[in-house]
Amino acid sequence: MTGPLSAILGFGLFGVFCLAFTEKILPVPPSHVLLLFLGMTAAPDSSMLAILLAETTVASFAGCLVWYGVGRRIGFDRADRLIERVGRYVFLRPATYRKLGQAYRRNHVRVSLLAQFIPTVRNYLPIAAGALCLPALPFAMATLLGATIWNAGFLLTGYLLRGSGQDSFTVGLRIIVIVVALETVFMLALRYGPAWRRRIRLALG
Fold first, then answer.
1. If you average pLDDT over residues 101-114, what whole number do you get?
2. How many domains does the chain have?
3. Domain presence at residue 2
4. Residue-range definition of the domain harbouring residue 87
5. Structure pTM?
6. CA-based angle 18:20:140, to the nearest 5?
7. Is 198 inside a domain boundary?
8. CB within 8 A of 75, min separation 6: which ones?
């Protein structure tokens, strides 16, 4: 995989943009792998790291807007059928998509933000946002913030691991732990958040 990635990176920042944008449309390679690789190989100093963060965030944001536009165009029913047909091929369960779509109706800003921390979900949940005709500006702001935090975390991790001498297995294991932890936090917030808020309000009177 590093061979094709290195070849694309030969085009400089344009190659970085294309990689980050394409990953948002079809998550191959997954964003955490791509961002870690960029942090380790394409950021010789902190200034270039900042440029990479801006470049990849804009590209990720652009990919989200593409899917948002697709959702607006095809509508909710057709979007639901699309995920039903192709979701399993991109590791997105239709049940998860529908549950998050329902959560979108209750609090689209929070879900737009938190969705950026879930692999695969972060790629395709903007389809639901568009299909539900959610307000574009709050969606865009929450998505941009979430993408910035996500990209910064993995780029910085890769940058700090640069020259550390750690083997790929160790790095890969750490990536898995980070991703699983983020996914667990999101799903817990989605499932138990409303109940916790009700309990807090009752406790406070």
1. 76
2. 1
3. no
4. 9-203
5. 0.73
6. 115
7. yes
8. 131
